[in-house]
Fold RNA polymerase sigma factor.
Amino acid sequence: MSSAGRALPDVGLVVAARQGDQRALDDVVAASLPLVYNIVGRALRGHADVDDVVQETLVRVIRYLPALNDPAAYRSWLVAITIRQVRDWETRRRVALNRDAGLDAIHNVPDPASDFAGMTILRLGLTDQRREVAEATRWLDPDDQELLSLWWLEETGEITRNEVADALGLSPGHVAVRIHRMKEQIQSARGVVRALRARPGCPDLGAVSAEWDGTPSSLWRKRLARHVRDCAFCGRLGTSLLPIDRLLAGMPLLPLPAGLGAHLPSAAAPAAAVQAVAPPSPTAGPAAGPTPQGAVPTDAGGGPSVVDLAVNRPRGLVPSLAAGVAAAVLAITMAVVILPDEPSAPSWAAPPSAAPTAVAAPSIAPSPSARPSSKAPVAPAVSSARKGVGVWNFAGASQALANSRASWYYTWGTQHPGISTPRGATFVPMIRSAENVTAAELARAKAAGPYLLTFNEPDLPEQANMTVERALDLWPQLMATGSKLGSPAVAWGGPDPQGWLDRFMTGAQARGHRVDFITLHWFGADFTTATAVAQLRQYLQAVYQRYRKPIWLTEFALIRFAGGGSQFPSQQQQAAFLTAATAMLGQLPYLQRYAWFGLPATDKDRSGLFSDGTEATVVGRAFQAAR
């Protein structure tokens, strides 16, 4: 039996929302979010823009709900709007790729933190053949990812075949033909997945895949599937595969990320101060044609008209999404946004209210005796899922982390003693050096997953100080955690032929070791903003072009290391660089996460963001505003 009737609002609630009941509108949007998130996430294959497309979809739901003629058709209408937004995104992406082809020829690189196949496996606890099906979806043709997102929901009982057909603008018969072709592609990809994982593997398959970079693609699916089909050894591996339909039947929706679900209104919450602007005329709704690509609907006067402000604030229209105002996805999709008055200058430019307070010198490894607070500090909405920060313990660290608006952080270890994780943020563990490759540390890393940073600056004697061979020998123990693994984070020379990272990646490929993304550090010695940003971009591009894997930039700032000491730019120079650099990073689809170095600001660590729990530096205010 379909669970969609329980997951989406009933007709009465939709009618009440159409008539202006604000509580009903909150409930309708909240109930619609899981379905929209699952369609968009799988169709975009976990691209970093998933959140943006989800919020654009729900903004249009709020805008056009008064024009919905048949409340009983709400679910079909919702799915159709969602697919339209997916197609608009794909069109914009292709235009951007064509425009920038001479720069990088970048293609759609899924975010390791939001890849839907991986999240389906982790969050739903899939095993064996269901896991293989989820992994096989990564190998589909791009045009079939949209269809997959709908078919998957049909098989799990969330939507019907007629709703799939309506969303795609096709007849049910035509949809059946396309689904049959897509299922054949998944079936062949399942055979490839199983053959690649077989131990001992097929030596002939190893020869066929010698030039494969490890990234699933439709081209390599065809090449490898041809071998699997013709090979007696590999062909036998697929004889026990169950039908895909049986494996997917009854699976629930993928749960929302904690950062999204935390904002959903509860039944006990007071009615949100949400006001949809005057409904459009019936001809202006989606039934009459799509909204122009990328446009946010406006009222008759041409101003923004999607959302009204909100809690304890005078009512006023929120600026266009294209201006980058909204930071929290749910804040916008629920039309509940609390924003400061628009400043005439960047928020970080304001002078600090008091001189920085001196604090104890930081330690990379916080004291194990420190006890984290049992209550996580309340944090402002994070600005970007990419934005993170390196943290070591200092007075007020937990509140400073919350105030930073970072969505993730790490401590160069597998724990964060004395530091509470803010609501909406996540902790990422690290195995810092060879001495940390122990059963206890690996167990903690696995529990804190699903991502694991590894070996901090192994090319420096004062850090992990490891040979490439030692790192490669230890790597299988890290892979055994099941976490998505970042490469060792070299201090420099990431793209250099025969450099530490290059030799590690070559050795990992030769040994069959898995590396899911590249981890980098970068510190600029030129304090001129434009020059420093250009140098950072060139470095990241060179690394991506060499390894063709997503990148996490886990330490970066302007610091000149000379004569055994460190030279820093002025706070204003550092803040200007941070602002320009993060804007640049947001334009690189292969740059999945970044972390500033670091949270504490002392006389020694003058690139830091906070001198105590609440006192942000000029650089800290730039970080708060950054995306």
